[in-house]
Amino acid sequence: MHHTFFARQSDSVGVQVQVAEAALKLQTAQLHAYRVADDLGSAAGNGQDLDYGVRARVRAQFGYLAQQVLDAIHILVIVHGAAAFAETSLMHQYWRDANTAARHAGLNAVVGYEVFGKELLGVPERISPMV
User: Is the CB of residue 68 less than 8 Å from the CB of residue 25?
Assistant: First the structure.
């Protein structure tokens, strides 16, 4: 770690905390992905369509999990330092790929939250065909 007395980054409590937070964000994203997969698998196995309420929640969960992944990568880029942005850095590739993927319309967290919030509150207005 530059400009500190630590021989290794892993000796820093600050780094330890940041890595733990990033790991928990990734685990949170994974739990949401598993929930969505379970919902889709159950519906497909039973030959049923998902009702609008489940689809609205799934839309919000996709946006939420994408944001959790982006937040985790952001933390890890900070830990890694400026070298994370070198063209040859795997961290740079992960950062770029995740940020590109998260720009897909279906992963727009704010739209997903609005869709789900309207459903939770019984607001009939539909704002997106991707539900």
Answer: yes
> By C-alpha distance, which of 32, 30, 27 is closest to 112?
32
d(CA 1, CA 14): 11
The full set of domain ranges for the chain reads 12-121
Give domain 12-121's CATH architecture: Up-down Bundle (1.20)
Smallest Cα–Cα separation from 52: which of 109, 103, 104, 125?
125
61-113 pLDDT tens trace: 999 999 999 999 999 999 999 999 999 999 999 999 999 999 999 999 999 99
- Please write the tens of the pLDDT for every residue from 1-12: 667 888 888 889
